[in-house]
Amino acid sequence: MPTANKSLTEIISGIEVQASSGDCQVIVRGMSMDSRQVQPGDLYACVPGFKVDGHDFAASAVASGAVALVVERLLPLEVPQVKVPNVRQVMGTLAANIYDHPSEQLELVGVTGTNGKTTITYLIEKIGIKHGKKVGLIGTLGSRIDGRTIPGDRTTPEAIDVQKLLGEMVAEGVSLAVMEVSSHALVLGRVAGCEFDAGIFTNLTQDHLDYHKTMEDYLYAKSRLFADLKGDKQPKISILNGDDPAFEKLRQASAATVVSYGIHNSADYRAENVEVTTEGVRFQVHFRGAVRDIWYATPGFFSVYNALAAFAWGVERGYSPEIVAEALAEISGVPGRFESIRLGQPFQVIVDYAHTPDGLENVVRTARDFTKGRLLTVFGCGGDRDRTKRPLMGEVAAQWSDYLLVTSDNPRTEDPGQIIREILTGVSGVDYVAIADRREAIWSACRLAKPRDTILIAGKGHETYQIFGTEVHPFDDREVAREALRGLGYAQLDS
Ligand SMILES: CC(=O)N[C@H]1[C@@H](OP(=O)(O)OP(=O)(O)OC[C@H]2O[C@@H](n3ccc(=O)[nH]c3=O)[C@H](O)[C@@H]2O)O[C@H](CO)[C@@H](O)[C@@H]1O[C@H](C)C(=O)N[C@@H](C)C(=O)N[C@H](CCC(=O)O)C(=O)O
Ligand SMILES: Nc1ncnc2c1ncn2[C@@H]1O[C@H](COP(=O)(O)OP(=O)(O)OP(=O)(O)O)[C@@H](O)[C@H]1O
Ligand SMILES: N[C@H](CCC[C@H](N)C(=O)O)C(=O)O
Ligand SMILES: [Mg+2]
C-alpha cells in the first residue's frame, strides 16, 4: 500500500468544509472507511451506510490509530475532525490528495454500460500490453497490475481503494490503466478524484432497477462518466455505441470529443461483412477512410461491438491499427464469458456470466444459432437485486431454448423458491423444471443432454461462490459441470 505524509490541511484543499475541530496540521499517512482496516496514522471517513453508520465506529477507528476523522456531524472524540456535507462524495478527492493524484500520472480509461465492460477492459489491457506498455486493470474479476492479480469484491471498488490501486500502479510503472465503472460507482462517488482520458459506453438495457428505480436515472448515472471528461491532461474522448438508443443523450452529455462505433448506423468505426461462427466473429471495420479485417475468438453478435469499441479506442489513441487487430486476434477469451467445458462429451457445455435480460438473450440466441440438437438452459436470478428482470429473463430463455432448468443464483437474503416462482411467471411455451439446488440442476442437465445438444449455464460465469443469506459458499459452475461430466464417465482432460 502506498503511504503518505501530508497534513490534514493539505488533504482537504478543494473540499467544501462546513466546520472543523482540533489541529488540522496533524500528519496523515493513509485513509480508510472501515474501522476494521484502519492503520495507525489513517484518516477515517465516517460513512452513513445503507446498513450501518460509520460514525458509530469512529471511536474504534481512533483506538486502532486513526489520527483524524471526516464526518457529517462532529463527534465527541479527541481527534481533529472535518465536517463535510457528504462524506461518500468527497472520499475519492481526499484519497486522491493523499496519494498524489495517481490518475493524473497515467492514462486512464473508464468503461461503462450494462453488459460488456469486463470483456472490453480485457481487450484494452491486451492492446496496451501488445504495444509494450505496463497495464493496470480494475473490474469485476478483481484488479491486475502488470499481470499480478489482486482479488476484489465488486465491479468498481470503493473510492479510497480505487485511489490506492491507482497509486500502486503508478509506483509500479504502469502507464495505462483501464477500469470498469459501474452505475453504482458513478452515483456513490467511487470514481471521484479520477481523471479519465477516455470513456467507453457499451450499451444500456435493463438491470439494477432496485437501485436506480428508472431507466432514466440509470442512464443519467452512466452519462456522468462522459459529462466529467474534463481536464487538460490530454485531449479526451468518449467512445459511444452508435447503435444504442442511449447514444444521442450520451453524445449531448459528453464534455469530450465523441467517437462512435456500430453496425447499423453510420459510425466513425463501422463493422461490415459480419460473420458469426461457433469459434468467434469476423468482420471488416471501416474507419477514417481505411478498412481492416478483424477476428475475435468469442462467438455472438455482441462480440462485434466489444471488439469494435476496443479497436476504436486503440486507433484513436494513436496505436497501429494492424497491431490492435493482432491483439484482438490473439486474445483467447475472458474467464466465464462463453467459456466451453470440454471433457470429450458429445454435447457442448458453455458457462456464461449473462445475468440481465439482454445479456441472456444474446447468449441463448448465439448458442441457439450453432446448436444442431436441443438447447438446455440452466439459470436463475440473484436475490436482493432488481426483481423486475426475473420474468424478463424467464421469457427470453424460454423463447430461444428447448428446455429450461430454472435454479438459484446467489439467493442472498431472499427465498430461492420465491425467486424461481417470479422467473417462471415469464416462462411459457417451453418445457422446464425448477431445481433450486444449482449443483443438482447442472447434473440433471448433463444427464439429459444427448449428442449435438448444448447446455448453457448462465448467470455466474467466473464466480466461485454461491451466496445464501449472508454466507458465501464455494461454488463454481465450471467445476460442477466438470464434476458432473466426470460422473457420467467423460474423462478427457479439459482442453
Ligand atoms: C449499495 C452499495 O453499494 N453498498 C455498499 C456500501 O454499503 P453500505 O453503505 O451499506 O455500508 P455499511 O455496511 O452500511 O457500512 C457503512 C460504513 O461503516 C463502515 N463500518 C462498518 C462496520 C464496522 O465495523 N466498521 C466500519 O467502519 C463501513 O466500512 C462503511 O464505510 O459500502 C459497503 C462497504 O464498501 C459495500 O460493501 C456495499 O456494497 C454492497 C456489498 C453491494 O452489493 N454493492 C453492489 C450493489 C454494487 O456496488 N454493485 C456494483 C455494480 C455491479 C455491476 O453492474 O457490475 C459494483 O460496482 O460492484
Ligand atoms: N456488448 C455486449 N452486449 C450484450 N451482452 C453482452 C455484451 N458483452 C457481453 N455480453 C453478455 O453479458 C455477459 C457479461 O459480460 P461482461 O462481464 O463483459 O459485462 P459487464 O458489463 O462487465 O457485467 P457486470 O455489470 O456484471 O460487471 C457476458 O457473459 C455475455 O453474456
Ligand atoms: N454485478 C452484478 C452481478 C450479478 C451476478 C449474478 N450472479 C447475481 O448474483 O445476481 C450484480 O451485483 O448485480
Ligand atoms: Mg464486469
From TrEMBL:
<keyword id="KW-0436">Ligase</keyword>
<dbReference type="InterPro" id="IPR000713">
    <property type="entry name" value="Mur_ligase_N"/>
</dbReference>
<dbReference type="Pfam" id="PF01225">
    <property type="entry name" value="Mur_ligase"/>
</dbReference>
<keyword id="KW-0067">ATP-binding</keyword>
<keyword id="KW-0963">Cytoplasm</keyword>
<feature type="binding site">
    <location>
        <position position="463"/>
    </location>
    <ligand>
        <name>meso-2,6-diaminopimelate</name>
    </ligand>
</feature>
<feature type="domain" description="Mur ligase central">
    <location>
        <begin position="111"/>
        <end position="312"/>
    </location>
</feature>
<dbReference type="InterPro" id="IPR036615">
    <property type="entry name" value="Mur_ligase_C_dom_sf"/>
</dbReference>
<dbReference type="GO" id="GO:0071555">
    <property type="term" value="P:cell wall organization"/>
</dbReference>
<keyword id="KW-0573">Peptidoglycan synthesis</keyword>
<dbReference type="GO" id="GO:0008765">
    <property type="term" value="F:UDP-N-acetylmuramoylalanyl-D-glutamate-2,6-diaminopimelate ligase activity"/>
</dbReference>
<feature type="binding site">
    <location>
        <begin position="155"/>
        <end position="156"/>
    </location>
    <ligand>
        <name>UDP-N-acetyl-alpha-D-muramoyl-L-alanyl-D-glutamate</name>
    </ligand>
</feature>
<dbReference type="Pfam" id="PF02875">
    <property type="entry name" value="Mur_ligase_C"/>
</dbReference>
<feature type="domain" description="Mur ligase N-terminal catalytic">
    <location>
        <begin position="28"/>
        <end position="97"/>
    </location>
</feature>
<dbReference type="Pfam" id="PF08245">
    <property type="entry name" value="Mur_ligase_M"/>
</dbReference>
<feature type="domain" description="Mur ligase C-terminal">
    <location>
        <begin position="336"/>
        <end position="461"/>
    </location>
</feature>
<dbReference type="InterPro" id="IPR005761">
    <property type="entry name" value="UDP-N-AcMur-Glu-dNH2Pim_ligase"/>
</dbReference>
<feature type="binding site">
    <location>
        <begin position="409"/>
        <end position="412"/>
    </location>
    <ligand>
        <name>meso-2,6-diaminopimelate</name>
    </ligand>
</feature>
<dbReference type="GO" id="GO:0000287">
    <property type="term" value="F:magnesium ion binding"/>
</dbReference>
<dbReference type="GO" id="GO:0005737">
    <property type="term" value="C:cytoplasm"/>
</dbReference>
<dbReference type="InterPro" id="IPR036565">
    <property type="entry name" value="Mur-like_cat_sf"/>
</dbReference>
<dbReference type="GO" id="GO:0009252">
    <property type="term" value="P:peptidoglycan biosynthetic process"/>
</dbReference>
<feature type="binding site">
    <location>
        <position position="35"/>
    </location>
    <ligand>
        <name>UDP-N-acetyl-alpha-D-muramoyl-L-alanyl-D-glutamate</name>
    </ligand>
</feature>
<dbReference type="InterPro" id="IPR013221">
    <property type="entry name" value="Mur_ligase_cen"/>
</dbReference>
<keyword id="KW-0132">Cell division</keyword>
<comment type="pathway">
    <text>Cell wall biogenesis; peptidoglycan biosynthesis.</text>
</comment>
<dbReference type="InterPro" id="IPR004101">
    <property type="entry name" value="Mur_ligase_C"/>
</dbReference>
<feature type="binding site">
    <location>
        <position position="182"/>
    </location>
    <ligand>
        <name>UDP-N-acetyl-alpha-D-muramoyl-L-alanyl-D-glutamate</name>
    </ligand>
</feature>
<protein>
    <recommendedName>
        <fullName>UDP-N-acetylmuramoyl-L-alanyl-D-glutamate--2,6-diaminopimelate ligase</fullName>
        <ecNumber>6.3.2.13</ecNumber>
    </recommendedName>
</protein>
<keyword id="KW-0547">Nucleotide-binding</keyword>
<feature type="binding site">
    <location>
        <position position="385"/>
    </location>
    <ligand>
        <name>meso-2,6-diaminopimelate</name>
    </ligand>
</feature>
<comment type="function">
    <text>Catalyzes the addition of meso-diaminopimelic acid to the nucleotide precursor UDP-N-acetylmuramoyl-L-alanyl-D-glutamate (UMAG) in the biosynthesis of bacterial cell-wall peptidoglycan.</text>
</comment>
<feature type="short sequence motif" description="Meso-diaminopimelate recognition motif">
    <location>
        <begin position="409"/>
        <end position="412"/>
    </location>
</feature>
<feature type="modified residue" description="N6-carboxylysine">
    <location>
        <position position="222"/>
    </location>
</feature>
<keyword id="KW-0961">Cell wall biogenesis/degradation</keyword>
<feature type="binding site">
    <location>
        <position position="459"/>
    </location>
    <ligand>
        <name>meso-2,6-diaminopimelate</name>
    </ligand>
</feature>
<dbReference type="GO" id="GO:0051301">
    <property type="term" value="P:cell division"/>
</dbReference>
<dbReference type="GO" id="GO:0005524">
    <property type="term" value="F:ATP binding"/>
</dbReference>
<feature type="binding site">
    <location>
        <begin position="113"/>
        <end position="119"/>
    </location>
    <ligand>
        <name>ATP</name>
    </ligand>
</feature>
<keyword id="KW-0131">Cell cycle</keyword>
<feature type="binding site">
    <location>
        <position position="190"/>
    </location>
    <ligand>
        <name>UDP-N-acetyl-alpha-D-muramoyl-L-alanyl-D-glutamate</name>
    </ligand>
</feature>
<dbReference type="GO" id="GO:0008360">
    <property type="term" value="P:regulation of cell shape"/>
</dbReference>
